[in-house]
Amino acid sequence: MITLLEARNIGKRFGGLHALTEVSLTIHKGEVYGLIGPNGAGKTTFFNVLTGSYTPDGGEFVFNGSELPSGKPHKIVGRGIARTFQNIRLFRDLTALENVMAGHHIRTKAGVWGVLTQNRFTREEERLTTQRANELLDYVGIGHFAEVVSKNLSYGDQRRLEIARALATEPQLLALDEPAAGMNATETGQLKLLIEQIRRDGITVMLIEHDVKLVMGLCDRVAVLDFGKKIAEDIPTVVQKDEAVIAAYLGGGKHAD
Amino acid sequence: MNELVSAVPWLGKRNPMAARWLIIIIALVAPLIAWQFGRSWVRILDFALLYMMLALGLNLVVGFAGLLDLGYIAFYAVGAYAFAFLASPHFDVHMPFWIVLPLAAGFAALAGIMLGFPVLRLRGDYLAIVTLGFGEIVRIFLLNLNYPINITNGPQGINMIDPINLFGWDLSRNLQITENFSINSLFLYYYFFLLCVAGSILFVQRLQISRIGRAWAAMRDDELAAKAIGINTRNMKLLAFSLGATFGGVAGALFGAFQGFVSPESFSLMESIAVLTMVVFGGMGNIAGAIVGAFVLALLPEILRDVAVPMQQTLFGTVILDPEVLRMLLLSLAMILMMLLRPSGLIPARARYAHAENMKREGAQ
After folding, report:
1. Which residues in chain A touch residue B229, judged by CB atoms under 8 angstroms apart?
2. A245 and A220, same structural domain?
């Protein structure tokens, strides 16, 4: 198995709060990797540190064999890590298509001069961007809403659009922050199919999720965070029976005393 | 142009071609009509065109990139003074127009970047306050830099600025066609400025429908998400500030040359607010809005001045309200009515950020 991402002793503090303490984990190429844990365990903080929204207080990420720059989101996206947000963050006044086209920004090059002169390179790039964005909308199943302003889309479709926008950055690792939050059973089922399709297409997926059924059915391996520490990392069926994990979710155990 | 076309009431949607020609004809004929009311009206139209350029530039910063700039007139000032320094008897430098214009634009762009750097992390109210301060700093510098070394000539301003000279064709002189027929210089300026505005519209439109325009829109709608999809928000903000400033600089240079005189009082905070009002009044973030807003608000006070005084004299026998007072009153009233009736501006069109022809999907519909 090829290692895609290795987190080494990642630490992050907010004042006196240790949001992440020495978190180390390894994600292999082509797998779906789940990150679970109770509320406030540091899952989203981990995402934010990974994608450069926060700078870590300690540790480093090694992606594809070289270290990731910390605190530079656009460079990290350039290296091939894309993310979605727990509370959907679309560009609300742009159409679905324009949202996805914006996602393609980092893979395009036209500068001011090219844009003003509309030279052949810029026109061709623009055409390809549009075409690719349309393909991605079809891929996540909302192609017929291409012209709809994104704030008017339904909740489930907004989730899909956010995934399409993240895919437009041509990532190797797609980090999804609670993609099934607020979805009903049907929508969750469709989401599961979509994530499986993404994996089949060669993109590694990292997933924060509370829906246990989804995590167990989808993930190859799961890591559990609790109070900013990794307390377990294994295949889902093993993690499910882990005593520390059960204690973390149900209370009791070492934190109760 | 397309946005402007579809903003034409009734005709715009039904017959875009006709609407397009209508706009072109109005733009070409407007000064001839204005001439019937007196030459000052043509002059007012000339100024309206300069305001359109300003509104287009500010719209780039405020409407597209979402960076509220209350000191935009500073770039207008930089352009105007750059022109005045390089083409007037003040320093006794008389560089040709085609060299001064890009230089003025360049200086303004530089000023834009200078403003951009310190405010990169600011948003909303904080950004507005700092930009407001920047505008005032520039004006106060211009006002006071006549001592110990006289650079700006202080409150007296700089006089006798060279007129616009296009390859030996002096726009400030009436064009003599035949012995008893000549075209007034005001018309020459009008058509030259019209050309500049048309060019600006083209540029702004191209920027809007491009990866740059989309990056700006993304930044405006959600900066965190924009970063998360790989947009370098620092560079994009600086680009917005400098490109917006460039428009201001060019308009300023044209203003200096057209008027032949610049002084700090032309660049007060009220002017910044006036341009911002034009953008908001017309409809933030769309080109047609900026154009229409600038046109209406540049003309309104002049019409008022012309109408209000005689009307009050016939009605009351004397002038009760000074037109200047009345102007602020009516402007505020107009803004309040707009907020109530059309909160997203006179022309609340949604700006496009993708080419329509690229979008036609094969097999769809």
Report:
1. 77, 82, 102-103, 105-106, 165-166, 168-169
2. yes
Residues of B in contact with A144 (CB under 8 A): 364
pTM: 0.91
A123: nearest CA partner in chain B = B210
Distance CA B91, CA B86 (A): 8
Say which of B210, B230, B233 has its CB closest to residue A126.
Answer: B210
Same domain, yes or no, for A127 and A108? yes
Cα A6 to Cα A54, A61, A67, A68, A69: the distances in Å are: 17, 6, 9, 10, 14
Domain end position, chosen among A164, A193, A222: A164
Q: Is residue A86 part of a domain?
A: no
Residue of B nearest to A108 (CA): B211
Which residues in chain B are closer than 8 Å to A92, comparing Cβ atoms?
221-222
pLDDT tens, position by position, for chain A (257 residues)? 899 999 999 999 998 899 999 999 999 999 999 999 888 899 999 999 999 999 999 999 999 999 999 888 999 999 999 999 999 999 999 999 999 999 999 999 999 999 999 999 999 999 999 999 999 999 999 999 999 999 999 999 999 999 999 999 999 999 999 999 888 899 999 999 999 999 999 999 999 988 888 888 899 999 999 999 999 999 999 988 888 888 888 776 555 44
- Specify the DSSP element, H or E, that contains A131: helix A120-140
What's the structural domain count of chain A?
A: 2
- CA angle (A35 as vertex; A33, A38 as ends), nearest 5: 160
| Residue A101 and residue A153 in one domain | yes
A62 neighbors B193 (Cβ within 8 angstroms): no
ipTM value of the model? 0.92
Q: Which domain holds residue A111?
A: 91-164
